[in-house]
């Protein structure tokens, strides 16, 4: 037990007189004995538990394990709720609220008598939201993600959450599946606690948290229902008390080297394109210089090692049993592709954490020498007159024959406009057409939803076409696949050139050359721009107004401009 009078919680619980009495007395209404105020570290457990966020619904049990560890190590644990963001339910998109969670959690951590925090997350936006908050407050912090669901099982085969939904929808439209079969499959796909068990955004961000050094080894991959997840959570409770005693903070862990590690791990696991936006936002909170181009440059020499859906075949449960993320990190480290000494919350470098981490199944986790996909097939960053500030494409989820493509644009100002005609047999579209879906960016939709991979037109699906080039200023679910150019910046609603495309224009996609070109002369584009009107703001009040007025573009992480950077954890003034 520490008696470190330098702990910030002593400003509350160590105070004399009326203020200290108030701080302690009301806490004792919960039945705590007075010893909890003896100067031990007070550990906040930020939980994004909610029945409206089904991927996080078990986090209150994970919190109990964390508390055990904190008590064991001589700390005083206090659980508190942070905004739960359920990817599947929140409209218009959970991404609209990532920054609100980050802002709420940041203020709660700073305003309360906490010496350190454990961050409990799971569903896509909760992991980056809490990391952004912890970065801005810079109190010692450990993350514990909730873990993936068990593999889905349908008609004797494994089905991945998210990834299977896109396929089921296509099969339904094409008549390969009935409505009854789809309804039955719903119950087979999500059959345990946990987040999506493909290498979607939740699994990716959990892996990013581990690669950044912010969660314990193996924490990203234990299934949500595995006893070892709870063991890891208890260990995290012990670890955070030690981090407070050492004053080891997120700014010492999430360094430029850690971000470079995370980007390379993301390439090795075939991770979600959403990691690009979230890592940029987290880095922005820490003042770590990180750009969109870093993702392309750093990933180019990293092969994809993990054969997981949506790019591959297996699921997170298989990944765990094959050795989990430490086996991948060790492969990269031994190939000289990591900053081995980057500090982690274990107090050791990331390389030391995974030294000797075994691989038990080479079909699931392959080697750098014999990878699942060769180096250079990860997320590519495109530029050109259609995306002056950049766009991304996940090569491993794309069709190789479409990575160099020229086609005529078919333009829609919203996914709704597209879906209104997508089943029309007379729609003027073929497999060479480039579908442009716009006004889906941070300001435009608002919130930059995962709508970019619109389903193919029915007439093409009936002909057996399974992919075509799509271009959008929105995002794509990490569980999704297809040749989809994403995150086009600036977005159409901000006056980006995407707003100027017209149906019939020629567009060239050249992923090997990293170019995205609208084949329209500059003077014609200038004429079109002169006639362009920005869309009306989507809200006149509340959070959506604040968000759309202050959100940055995708290439800057889509944080709010006034949230970039850190405020630290000093609060000198008392409340009464
Ligand atoms: Fe929550 Fe996929 S919907 S992780």
SSE layout and pairing:
Elements lengths: L9 H4 L3 H12 L13 E6 L11 H14 L3 E6 L16 H14 L4 E6 L4 H12 L3 E5 L6 E3 L2 E3 L3 H11 L5 H11 L11 H11 L15 H20 L3 H4 L2 H14 L4 H13 L5 H8 L16 H7 L1 H11 L15 H5 L24 E6 L2 E8 L9 E9 L2 H5 L14 E4 L20 H5 L7 E3 L11 E3 L19 E5 L4 E4 L3 H9 L11 H9 L26
Helix pairs in contact: 3-9, 4-5, 5-12, 8-11, 8-12, 11-12, 11-13
The chain binds FE2/S2 (inorganic) cluster.
The site of FE2/S2 (inorganic) cluster (FES) has 10 residues, from loops.
Number of helices: 20
Largest sheet: 8 strands, mixed
Bulk shape = globular
What number is the mean pLDDT? 95
What distinguishing features does this structure have?
binds FE2/S2 (inorganic) cluster, eight-stranded mixed β-sheet, single chain, four-stranded parallel β-sheet, alpha/beta, 35% helix, 576 residues
Task: Provide structural commentary.
The protein has 576 residues and is of the alpha/beta class. It contains 20 helices and 14 strands. Strands 7-8-12-11-10-9-13-14 form an eight-stranded mixed beta sheet. It has a four-stranded parallel beta sheet with strand order 2-1-3-4, with helices on both faces. Strand 7 and strand 8 form a beta hairpin. Helix 4 runs parallel beside helix 5, helix 8 packs parallel to helix 12 and helix 11 packs antiparallel against helix 12. The protein binds FE2/S2 (inorganic) cluster. The site of FE2/S2 (inorganic) cluster has 10 residues, from loops.
């Amino acid at each position: 037990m520490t008696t470190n009078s330098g702990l910030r919680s002593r400003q509350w619980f160590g105070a004399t007189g009326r203020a200290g009495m108030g701080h302690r007395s009301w806490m004792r209404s919960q039945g705590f004995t007075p010893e909890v105020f003896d100067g031990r570290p007070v550990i906040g457990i930020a939980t994004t538990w909610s029945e409206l966020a089904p991927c996080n619904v078990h986090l209150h049990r994970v919190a109990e394990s964390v508390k055990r560890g904190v008590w064991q190590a001589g700390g005083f644990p206090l659980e508190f709720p942070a905004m739960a963001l359920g990817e599947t339910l929140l409209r218009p998109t959970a991404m609209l609220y990532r920054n609100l969670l980050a802002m709420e959690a940041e203020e709660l951590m700073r305003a309360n008598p906490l010496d350190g925090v454990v961050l409990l997350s799971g569903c896509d936006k909760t992991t980056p939201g809490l990391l952004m908050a912890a970065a801005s407050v810079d109190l010692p912090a450990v993350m514990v993600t909730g873990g993936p669901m068990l593999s889905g099982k349908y008609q004797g085969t494994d089905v991945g959450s998210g990834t299977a939904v896109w396929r089921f929808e296509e099969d339904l439209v094409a008549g390969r599946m009935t409505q009854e079969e789809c309804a039955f499959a719903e119950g087979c796909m999500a059959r345990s606690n946990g987040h999506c068990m493909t290498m979607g955004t939740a699994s990716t961000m959990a892996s990013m948290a581990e690669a950044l050094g912010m969660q314990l080894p193996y924490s990203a991959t234990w299934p949500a229902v595995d006893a070892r997840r709870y063991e890891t959570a208890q260990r995290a409770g012990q670890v955070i008390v030690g981090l407070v005693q050492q004053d080891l903070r997120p700014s010492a862990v999430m360094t430029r080297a850690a971000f470079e590690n995370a980007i390379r791990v993301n390439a090795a696991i075939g991770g979600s394109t959403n990691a690009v936006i979230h890592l940029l936002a987290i880095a922005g909170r820490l003042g770590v210089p990180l750009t969109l181009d870093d993702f392309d440059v750093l990933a180019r020499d990293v092969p994809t090692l993990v054969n997981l859906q949506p790019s591959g075949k297996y699921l997170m449960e298989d990944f765990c049993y094959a050795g989990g993320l430490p086996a991948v990190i060790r492969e990269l480290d031994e190939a000289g592709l990591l900053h081995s000494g980057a500090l982690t919350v274990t107090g050791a470098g990331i390389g030391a954490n995974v030294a000797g981490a075994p691989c038990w199944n080479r079909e699931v986790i392959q080697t750098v020498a014999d990878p699942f996909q060769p180096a250079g097939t990860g997320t590519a960053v495109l530029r050109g007159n259609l995306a002056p500030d950049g766009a991304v494409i996940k090569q491993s989820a794309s069709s190789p024959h479409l990575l160099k493509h020229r086609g005529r644009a078919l333009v829609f100002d919203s996914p709704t406009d597209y879906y209104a005609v997508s089943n029309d047999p007379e729609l003027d579209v073929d497999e060479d057409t480039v579908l442009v879906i716009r006004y889906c960016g941070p300001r435009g939709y608002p919130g930059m939803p995962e709508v970019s991979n619109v389903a193919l037109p029915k007439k093409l699906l009936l002909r057996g076409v399974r992919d075509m080039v799509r271009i959008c200023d929105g995002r794509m679910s990490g569980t999704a696949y297809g040749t989809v150019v994403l995150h086009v910046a600036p977005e159409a609603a901000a006056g980006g050139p995407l707003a100027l495309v017209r149906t019939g224009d020629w567009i060239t996609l050249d992923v090997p050359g990293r170019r995205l070109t609208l084949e329209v002369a500059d003077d014609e584009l200038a004429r079109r721009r002169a006639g362009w009107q920005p869309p009306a703001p989507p809200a006149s009040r509340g959070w959506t107004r604040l968000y759309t007025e202050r959100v940055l573009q995708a290439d800057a992480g889509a944080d709010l401009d006034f949230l970039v950077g850190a405020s630290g954890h000093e609060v000198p003034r008392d409340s009464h």
